[in-house]
Every structure is written in C-alpha cells, then in structure tokens.
TrEMBL record:
This is Histidine triad nucleotide-binding protein. PROSITE patterns: HIT_1 (PS00892), HIT_2 (PS51084). The active site is at 106 (tele-amp-histidine intermediate). InterPro entries: Histidine_triad_CS (IPR019808), Histidine_triad_HIT (IPR001310), HIT-like (IPR011146), HIT-like_sf (IPR036265). Signal peptide: none annotated. Gene3D superfamilies: HIT-like. It comes from Sphingomonas tagetis. Residues 10-120 form the HIT domain. One of its GO terms (molecular function) is catalytic activity. SUPFAM superfamilies: HIT-like (SSF54197). A motif (Histidine triad motif) lies at residues 104-108.
C-alpha cells in the first residue's frame, strides 16, 4: 500500500512555485526542472502535476489522460535532453529499498555523455 500523499513535500512546493527551480518544461500534466545535485551533464526531473507519491501510486491510480500526458511530457523532455549528445536514461526510484527521497513521483532524465552500464 502506498503512503498518503504529503502536500508539503519539496516537489509539491516546487510545483506550487513556493521554492525556486530551474524549469525547462511545463504543461497541464507535468513539469520538468534541473536536479539540484546533477549526476550527469544533463540531469532533469519530470514530475506529474497531480498528487502521486511514486510510479507505483501513479500507474495504479492516475487517469488515462494523466498517464498519457505524463508519458508524453517525459518523452518530450528526454528527446530534447538527448538531442545533442545522442541518447538518454530514464530512472524512477520507488519506496524504501530504492532510496526514493522525495515522495512525489519523479522520473530522472540523464543525458549529455556516455552513461556507462546500469548499476544494480
Ligand atoms: P530520488 O532519490 O528520490 O530518486 O531523487 C530525488 C532527487 O531530487 C535527487 O536527485 C535530489 O538531488 C533532487 N532534489 C532534492 N531536493 C531538491 C530540490 O529542492 N530542488 C531540486 N531541483 N532537486 C532536488
């Protein structure tokens, strides 16, 4: 079971504009901004505008329109991020064992250099 959504998590505050971020994308379903502690030349976070704790919560409970809108937004952001140096990596941490820090769904977009093998 997913924990209840905490409307005071840091990404909720970024979504409401209560704390600053370097936004690169925004539409009805998603916003994207630069990760404050980048792990690649381009490291963006794409989050849905709706109150979803994780990929687990979102994929189970969001509407078809929200899911389509979010996936399209991740695609657009990643395509742009991967346009100069070819390719990118998407990552979503879910729950305790993944090390998920912020309880609002975010998809990491890494790009801008050869990213090396996945670590397990
Ligand atoms: P997680 O570990 O939950 O998958 O990823 C959380 C990410 O959010 C981390 O990469 C971290 O650097 C980033 N982050 C945490 N707080 C902030 C913030 O206030 N602003 C921005 N832009 N990124 C943040």
């Amino acid at each position: 079971a997913t924990e209840p959504y905490d409307p005071n998590n840091v990404f909720a505050k970024i979504l409401r504009g209560e704390i600053p971020s370097k936004r690169v994308y925004e539409d009805e379903f998603a916003i994207a901004f630069h990760d404050i502690n980048p792990h690649a030349p381009t490291h963006l976070l794409v989050i849905p505008t709706g109150p979803y704790v994780s990929w687990d919560d979102f994929s189970a409970n969001a509407s078809d329109a929200e899911i389509a809108g979010f996936v399209r937004a991740v695609g657009a952001v990643a395509r742009e991020a991967g346009a100069v140096e070819p390719g990118y990596r998407l990552l979503a941490n879910v729950g305790l064992n993944s090390g998920q820090e912020v309880p609002h769904l975010h998809v990491h977009v890494f790009a801008g250099k050869p990213l090396g093998p996945m670590l397990a």
